[in-house]
Amino acid sequence: MKKNISIILSVLFLLSVSSSYADKSTKQATDVKVWSDTTHSGETDKAMHLKADKKNGIEVYEVCSACHLLEGWGTVDGTFPQLAGQHRSVLIKQLADIRALNRDNPTMYPFALPESIGDEQAMADVTDYIAKLKMNPNNHKGKWAKGTPEFVKGKKLYDDNCTECHGKAGEGDAIKFYPKIVGQHYSYMIRQFEWIRDGKRRNANPDMVKQIKGFSDADMAMVINYASRIPVPKKDVAPVGWQNPDYD
Ligand code: HEC
Ligand code: HEC
Description:
The protein is mostly helical. It is built from 11 helices and no strands. The chain has helices at residues 2-49, 54-68, 88-99, 109-112, 114-117, 120-131, 149-161, 163-166, 186-197, 206-212, 217-229. Helix 1 packs across helix 3 (88-99), helix 2 packs across helix 6 (120-131) and helix 9 (186-197) packs across helix 11. The protein is globular and about 50 Å long. The structure holds heme C (2 copies).
């Protein structure tokens, strides 16, 4: 009898959690449709609502680690972005967009397909795992140190044009699918920023495109320099030299 009650209680608890989640996701649906209508109704939504299995997340991530590395830190030359610590919603949306060819990524495409890693459950598992990894203590930074005129100008550009979506500390917004950019590699961010400005990243947020269309290459370098130098909160960073123990 006791057992039955606890089952009923946990079912009720789960129902209340999932219905409050559903409220949020209705809001997301309209937000997201604007810049990702091909995928949002499908995989993104499904994966967002599945409970993650850590063991499978570790297994699936092994494929990804060939490029994004076992720690999820990417490479300082910017070829591979850091994924560790990114919002799970952002990881899911980007992965779904890449799978649906809504964001071009020929290098990764074959590895991201359902045939390779599995369906929405695999997406839910691997993104939950990645989002919980601690971040790179040494991300690639732009060349202008704090106090230089370029740093100062970059900060002003950032404060005036980016905080509304990416936040003052580069933290992004998980509910709205706005990426965290704090701690990301300078070289990767430059490429994405340029592609978004010039219309090459097809899944880009149209409001961001509008906001940055007047940016010269010099402005771009200064604003990304600043973004790459925003300190990552201590609680989110791994110690220097940390190696992922899940792959001993
Ligand atoms: C063969 C190399 C390769 C493999 C394997 C790979 N990726 Fe990628 N991934 C890339 C590259 C390159 C980019 C950046 C593309 C660009 O510049 O637009 C990327 C970008 C991403 C992004 C977007 C990041 C962002 O900040 O927007 C996500 C999410 C991602 N990968 C997840 C994964 C996951 C999950 C796996 C495993 C299932 C995986 N990748 C496997 C090469 C790879
Ligand atoms: C209106 C909201 C908005 C504004 C303003 C905005 N962004 Fe974005 N930004 C986004 C969204 C949303 C994405 C992800 C787009 C997608 O889904 O592919 C993004 C992506 C990026 C990326 C690529 C991140 C990645 O992981 O691939 C960088 C870098 C970036 N923004 C920098 C900036 C900077 C710097 C500014 C200010 C000059 C700025 N953004 C202004 C919403 C915004």
